[in-house]
Amino acid sequence: MRRLRHLRAEGNRIVCEGREMVNLSSNDYMGIGADPVLWNEFLSSADRNEFGGGSCSSRLLTGNHPAYASLEKRLAVLYGAESALVFDSGWHANVGLLPALTSSKDLILADKLVHASIIDGIRLSDAECIRYPHGNLERLETLLEKRREDYDNVFIVTESVFSMDGDCADLRRLAELKRKYGAFLYVDEAHAFGVRGKRGLGLAEEQGVIAEIDFLVGTFGKAAASQGAFAVTDDVFREYLVNTMRPLIFSTSLPPVSVRWTEFVVERLTGMESSRRHLERLGERLRERLTTAGLETAGKSQIVPLIVRDNRKAIALSEYLCENGFFVLPIRRPTVPPGGERLRISLTASLTEIQIETLSELCARIGR
Length: 368
Ligand code: PMP
Hints:
Layout: E1 7-10, E2 13-16, E3 19-23, H1 36-45, H2 66-79, E4 83-87, H3 90-101, E5 107-111, H4 116-124, E6 128-132, H5 137-147, E7 154-159, H6 171-181, E8 184-188, H7 203-206, E9 215-219, E10 229-233, H8 235-244, H9 246-250, H10 256-269, H11 273-292, E11 303-307, H12 311-323, E12 326-327, E13 330-331, E14 342-346, H13 353-366
Parallel strand pairs: 3-12, 5-6, 5-7, 7-8, 8-9
Antiparallel strand pairs: 1-2, 2-3, 4-10, 9-10, 11-14, 13-14
Helix pairs in contact: 2-10, 3-4, 5-6, 11-13
Residues 89-91, 94, 115, 117, 159, 163, 188, 190-191, 219, 221, 229 line the site of 4'-deoxy-4'-aminopyridoxal-5'-phosphate.
């Protein structure tokens, strides 16, 4: 049984049921979630009379505070796109976009390991869907070759940095395929926004393909230490979504203070290049140490899986690390397929190389 723990996470520390540990299970990748300097700077620059506690209705009623237009304009400029649209969360985005965009005459081709929110979006859509094996773009091309002509529109759907394996999609190749077969490309950058690319715009920036992505989705609840999500697209699709996307139409919009905080952070994320490089180095070092110790890992990002392929082993290893001061949670089925049980080590830029060394030694001691 899953259970909600009594805990308090602050910066890279967490106190969980009386035990204080280094937090290796947070998505605060830039390490800014509890940065008092940033938060105080925001509070002193904010116009406190501008917002009350909540927005109290959806954006189409009275919840469309000017903070939204400001944030959306900033995102569109950053991405060099016509428009951006902000949502309440990544879940709202993924669960709402595909059902709004697709019809029964369309086909969705999604990577096998896309996030649960995308899967639920697919379930709510009228389109047919085929999941291709994770990262297998040859298989994807075969499907496109065989099936493209049978449908009005085809949507290729992927994450950029995958949340459980920490590996990266080949967005360049996906962009080639979408061009070759006249498909749309939908990319969820939840784990790459703020973290990848020179200005932190994501893996699409790093691979130089922002302009090729028809629906680029990012979330604010991870590296941006806020809440909400966005899609970068064009004016026609934006207007269409405002008229058809159910989570946007029927759910209360974010509190204005939250939207302002997001914009404040987004403005600063672009300049956090040295933190991004530090985080990259931490990931490389941890992977190198785990591999040297004969342990199994994967990927190439701030998410470092320690794959143990057994439920009990994952739990025992997690308990051992917690006892020794590192809060890392086991990931079991059904979150990962049977045999894929692991620890998901989520690194943040506020960690030090010494902490990574200590963690590697602990893993090496009992990991095998
Ligand atoms: N997409 C991916 C890839 C995610 O990992 C998550 C959350 N873990 C989401 C979307 C949902 O985002 P949010 O937490 O903003 O609802």
